[in-house]
Design brief:
The chain contains no helices and seven strands. With about 90 residues, it is an all-beta fold. The strands form three sheets. Strands 1-4-5 form a three-stranded antiparallel β-sheet, with no helix packed on it. Strands 2-3 form a two-stranded antiparallel sheet. A hairpin with a 4-residue loop joins strand 4 and strand 5. The protein is elongated. The model has no long low-confidence stretch (mean pLDDT about 90).
């Protein structure tokens, strides 16, 4: 019988939308943080004829960064892709 649990914390640095179509969308975005949890059990039984592996995952994001495609206000109807926090 093998029981385990782990926790990790990761991040992605913030930034600035430098390739935007208007001054309204040239805005900075915050860094993304994530806490990731994993718990599990591994078991071999019945003289190694049965193996059970169960694992559970959970992730909690803060300020998740996403790419957004939208109509640009400053380019006469064109599109722009910007990064923003969800």
């Amino acid at each position: 019988l093998f029981l385990y649990a782990s926790w990790t914390r990761g991040f992605r640095g913030g930034g600035f939308n430098g390739r935007c179509g208007s001054t309204q969308t040239c805005q900075p975005y915050d860094q993304e943080k994530i806490d990731s949890y994993e718990v599990g059990v591994k078991w071999d039984g019945f003289d190694n004829r049965l193996r059970v592996n169960l694992t559970g995952f959970w992730m909690e994001y803060a300020n998740q960064q996403v790419g957004i495609i939208r109509q640009s206000a400053g380019s006469g109807g064109g599109q722009e892709t910007v990064t923003d926090n969800a």
